[in-house]
Amino acid sequence: MPKTPTPRSGSKGGKGLGKSAKVSSMRHRKLLRENIKAITRPAIRRMARRGGVKRISGEIYEIARTCIKDFVTDVLRDCVSYVEYERKKTVGVMEMLLALKRQGRTLYGFDHEIRGRHTHAHFHY
After folding, report:
1. pTM of structure
2. Residue 92 DSSP label
3. Inter-axis angle of helices 41-50 and 60-85, nearest 10
4. DSSP H or E run through 102
5. Residue 93 domain-assigned?
6. Which PANTHER family does the record cross-reference, listed alphabetically (predicted)?
7. Can you give the pLDDT at residue 33?
């Protein structure tokens, strides 16, 4: 959950979302609502096609969005647990892989050097 803006000590720049006259000493985080709508009907249709679905009812799209949101929420909850344990602030590839593995959805195709600099996927055919 996003925290409410808190005053910062001093007005020395740093990471922020810009400086304005009114909010120079406050840090804001944009609240995203209804961002599940960003998963469009064509995107859901493409996923269904990949899964072998030939014809799709119009009522499926909201149900699919709900299922996708539930899945992503569960995975991210585990990712955040790993990140908080390691006292980091960024969810990385390794946390995502461990969260998926914990839920029984092991994802193959990533290099073993993930803890180092190589954070991209290596696909072996």
Report:
1. 0.64
2. -
3. 80
4. helix 93-102
5. yes
6. HISTONE H4
7. 83
* 3, part of any domain: no
Q: State the CB neighbour count (10 A cutoff) for residue 41.
A: 13
- What is the percentage of the chain residues whose pLDDT exceeds 70? 67
4: its two tokens: 């409410």
Distance, in Å, from the CA atom of 91 to the CA atom of 82, rounded to the nearest integer, reads: 8
pLDDT of residue 90: 92
10 CB-near residues (< 8 Å, 6+ apart): 25
| Torsion sign over Cα 54, 59, 65, 66 | negative
How many domains is the chain built from? 1
Residue 123 CA, chain-centre distance (Å), reads: 22
Q: How confident is the model at residue 28 (pLDDT cuts 50, 70, 90)?
A: confident
Residue 7 DSSP SS3: strand
What does the block give as tokens for 90?
């960024």
Of the candidates 37, 105, 45, the residue with the CA atom closest to the CA atom of residue 69: 37
In-domain check, residue 87? yes
